[in-house]
Specification:
Strand content: over 45%
Distance between the termini: 36 Å
Shape: globular
């Protein structure tokens, strides 16, 4: 089938691959592909077992249909069968959901246009800690091979602990007793990237291995599930980064500077999963869930940073088109050769113990204890080299032309690969106020520790007469998260002279041909740190001290939920109504600091707040004839603030010249920082959904939602009491009050949208299409926020107005093929900025296409063996950001190439 591909329009989609699967099969999701005749009472009964793609689709449809809330789901195709490259990419194919790519991989998700901060992630119904600086879970930490399903709750109920304002993603592992049989599966995949290893000394090939085992013992009273998944996944990127676009004397936009580089990374992860279930009687079940993950991401970036207009270099021979300089020359450019690295090590540990007692015919008691912890260490190295220190050494004469992707293509007169000319030095003299002659690099070593302990209790009373049951429960959790930030200037031993790069660290040359610069000398920056080639000079400045913080939360929840099973005018009605009462006690400790170098002064800061939220919710499902459902939901939801916004730390300044002024607008005091008294985002949500099912095989749905954001978080200048802060000598000021810019709770706004989804096997339409099928979803979302009445309304970060997904597949007689397209329109994305900080920038719309082909042997000596080939990012879709709502002003252009995988799996 030939289909036109457009990267800019959602409705020209070719669909593709890697699909919706995860790996352990859910109990009961098996039904029908190959017929197995059997004789019983002289009648032939046909048992049909569905496997592969259709099994995953039918399992997801079953989860959606049976839920009392409005949900979306992905379900495993088969035990040990690896689906998408990450869980986030599988979830991102669901209606109303999408993923933001980081280094080419889907890592975090947005639900209904709201950023990852508004979504909560659970593992088997339990809230999890995160490896990031905030709450948003990075899904690539969880091997998809070890999960059986992911259920995304778009509407909460009163018993859903840890619910998010946008939605809640619950990752689930297999239940061995419900699975009901022994299974053993192993899998292996080999992968590579078509643009090769871009950096000298790196690899472009990787592998994935997995093994899963499920069994039952003691006549079905003891169940065991074990899983292990290993991954070594290389990924590459050609990355163009512009400093920005000032204007020339004629008002034309021109490139201010650039930092082009190529990136090579190796992501290694080992994940372990264990489930033990014990049911000695029909009335008691105990289960223990264990999850452990070790994660390492080793990243190398090499390039040349080029100060141009903003570096004081005059522009000549300029060529202008539509108010933008698209070509010209810069003479006397002093480039900074960059050999940078980022090494991240993280471990996740998670335990959960659940006990369920059925006491008589009416009462059920459940207890649940859980614990999860993350420890993460980063080593971010910048190493500078060039022809000499600032004002010394050869310079480059360059011409450039802007290409159609928004990046500059240069010609150069300087050989950046010449080890005799390029030395360890500070070509621009950055950091000269601390290091004589300027810093020769920089080292940032942040560490994160995040721990969450939770206890939960519930008791349920079975009823009749319209209410099937009533559940009363309570939960208590304590979470502590701390960031310790250590930063050092690097000074090459032998400085202030420029120092030859040690030959033992040189690994070859790296090509920057994608922007016309040729080769640059390449060395291992981590090896230089280990060898002692640098002196480490701690950065004493205030802006570094305030990056460290500790945040603590104690959350007590009481809830009541009534489950409905009634008949209204002959229409069956199911659902629930109830409420949560949430008491939060939060606090933070950190430093306040001011100044630079030896002039830094500091103060210990702390703060916090207690508050109570009442969260009512109603979910109703009307079962209409012909497998139709009409759902309504209303709820009050919340999303807790980002933890870096809740930090107590502040940078402050004291102007002694204003010490005698008591007017707050001319106070000697000022500052910026976090707000430990910050309260959550809150919203009232309204949902309606129509669903038409065709057994377990197909469905069509149309939904609409509206979220009335009662509060929002934004930066505002407020009065702060600086009592106790040091003044560095001199008389006591006339006032200790000043204005600080911190996150505050504003008025909010609204988010609204419509969603359409359909999943249909071709055989339901005509026998000619037997084996074919398709899933499709599209959503349109709009928002408006105005947290400050004095500001204009703006769009919510993370919101793409249009999101669409299409998968077309064929599966018959063991052969399978699918192709999927995941589209999202432009959005305001969160990207990493200067100093590893957070920036918001417009991200260009994108269409990511994947495909997969495979064959499963269903009989004969190779029965149980599956082979597959897979391509991700089939059309090599780039990731592009731009500024000032002008797509010509490209800030980041990243090309990742295609990733190919071939693999085998075997199920015993």
């Amino acid at each position: 089938m030939n289909t036109a591909i457009s990267r800019r329009r959602a409705w020209l989609m070719t669909g593709g691959a890697t699909g919706l699967a995860l790996t352990f099969a859910l109990a009961g999701s098996a039904q029908a592909q190959t017929a197995a005749p059997a004789q019983q009472d002289n009648a032939q009964v046909e048992e049909v077992v569905v496997t592969g793609i259709r099994r995953g689709i039918e399992g997801a449809i079953s989860l959606k249909k049976s839920s009392t809330s409005i949900v979306e789901a992905v379900s495993a195709e088969d035990i040990g069968k690896l689906p998408d490259m990450s869980i986030a990419e599988s979830i991102a194919r669901l209606p109303g959901l999408t993923a933001q790519r980081l280094d080419g991989r889907g890592q975090v998700i947005s639900i209904r246009g709201l950023a990852p901060d508004f979504t909560t992630a659970l593992l088997n119904g339990r809230e999890q800690v995160s490896t990031g600086d905030n709450r948003g879970v990075e899904f690539d930490q969880y091997p998809s091979e070890l999960l059986s399903a992911v259920v995304v709750y778009k509407t909460p109920d009163a018993s859903l602990i840890g619910q998010g304002l946008a939605g809640t993603a619950d990752m689930r592992t297999v239940r061995p007793l419900a699975f009901g049989k022994r299974a053993l599966a192993v899998g292996a995949r080999y992968e590579w990237n078509d643009i090769g290893a871009l950096n000298a000394g790196t690899k472009s090939h990787g592998n994935r291995l997995s093994i899963s085992y499920i069994d039952q013992f003691m006549d079905g009273k003891l169940g065991l599930a074990l899983g292990y998944a290993h991954m070594e996944s290389p990924y590459q990127a050609e990355r163009w980064n512009s400093w920005g676009y000032p204007t020339d004397a004629s008002g034309n936009l021109v490139i201010g500077g650039a930092k082009p580089y190529v990136q090579s990374s190796m992501l290694k992860r080992d994940g372990f999963m264990g489930v033990v279930e014990f049911a000695p009687t029909d009335r008691f079940t105990s289960s223990l869930d264990v999850f452990y993950s070790e994660f390492n991401n080793h990243q190398i970036q090499r390039g040349v940073e080029l100060p141009l207009v903003w570096g004081g270099i005059p522009l000549t021979n300029s060529k202008v088109s539509n108010g933008m300089v698209v070509g010209g020359a810069f003479n006397g450019v002093k480039g900074v050769v960059r050999n940078d690295g980022n090494d991240r090590d993280a471990t996740i540990k998670s335990l959960g113990w659940n006990n369920k007692w059925e006491m008589g015919d009416a009462w059920t008691l459940v207890t649940d204890l859980s614990w999860s912890k993350v420890e993460r260490t980063d080593q971010v190295v910048e190493s500078y080299s060039g022809t000499g220190r600032a004002g010394v050494g050869a310079t480059d004469n360059m011409t450039f032309m802007m290409d159609g992707d928004g990046k500059a293509i240069f010609t150069s007169t300087l050989n950046y690969a010449d080890a005799g000319q390029i030395k360890l030095t500070s070509p621009q003299g950055w950091g000269g106020d601390i290091i004589t002659g300027g810093q020769d690099g920089y080292l940032n070593q942040p560490t994160i520790e995040d721990e969450l302990k939770t206890g939960r209790f519930s008791i349920t009373r079975a009823l009749d007469q319209g209410l099937s049951s009533v559940e009363l429960g309570a939960s208590y959790s304590e979470r502590t998260k701390g960031l310790v930030n250590d930063e050092w200037f690097l000074r090459a031993k032998g400085s202030p002279a420029s120092v030859a790069i040690p030959s033992s660290a040189i690994v070859g040359n790296t090509s920057l041909g994608f922007i016309g610069l040729g080769n640059v000398i390449s060395y291992d920056p981590f090896a230089l740190i280990r060898s002692g080639a640098y002196d480490l000079v701690r950065n004493p400045n205030a802006d570094v001290l305030v990056k460290s913080w500790d945040v603590e939360e104690k959350v007590a929840i009481g809830y009541l939920k009534a489950n409905i099973d009634a008949d209204l005018g002959g229409v069956p009605v199911t659902g629930n109504f109830g409420f949560q009462v949430v008491h939060t006690d939060q606090g933070s400790t950190a430093l306040g600091a001011s100044g630079t170098g030896s002039g830094v002064v500091r103060a210990n800061l702390s703060g916090g707040k207690k508050y109570v939220d009442f969260l009512p919710s109603v979910n109703l499902r009307f079962a209409l004839p012909a497998e139709q459902s009409l759902r309504f939901a209303v709820a009050r939801t919340l999303a807790r603030p980002r933890m870096d916004q809740m930090r107590a730390s502040k940078t402050f300044s004291y102007d002694q010249a204003k010490a005698g002024n008591s007017n707050i607008n001319f106070s000697p005091w000022s500052g910026t920082g976090g707000n430990p008294e910050l309260e959550p985002w809150r919203a009232d949500s309204y949902d309606v959904s129509y669903e038409k099912y065709f057994g377990r095989q197909a469905y069509v749905s149309l939904a609409a939602f509206y979220k009335d954001l009662k509060t929002y978080v934004y930066d505002q200048s407020v009065i702060f009491d600086f009592t106790g802060f040091p003044i560095g000598g001199g008389p006591e000021p006339a006032t200790r009050l000043g204005l600080v810019t911190t996150p505050q709770n504003g008025k909010g706004g609204s988010v609204k949208g419509v969603e359409f989804a359909a999943s249909m096997p071709g055989a339901l339409l005509t026998p000619i299409l037997d084996g074919f099928g398709a899933t499709f979803s599209a959503s349109y979302t709009d928002s408006s926020i105005q947290p400050n009445p004095n500001d204009k309304s703006s769009t919510i970060p993370g919101l793409s107005k249009t999101v669409a997904n299409l998968t077309v597949y064929y599966e018959k007689n063991g052969f399978s093929f699918r192709i999927s397209d995941r589209y999202r329109s432009k959005f305001l994305g969160e990207v990493t900025g200067f100093g590893n900080g957070r920036n918001y920038r417009m991200v260009k719309g994108e269409s990511v296409i994947d495909s997969q082909i495979g064959y499963t042997f269903n009989e004969g000596p190779m029965q149980g063996l599956s082979v597959l080939a897979q391509v991700n990012n089939l059309t090599d879709e780039p990731f592009t950001t731009y500024q000032n709502n002008d797509q010509r002003q490209v800030i980041d252009y990243q090309r990742y190439g295609r990733t190919y995988l071939i693999g085998l799996s075997y199920k015993f």
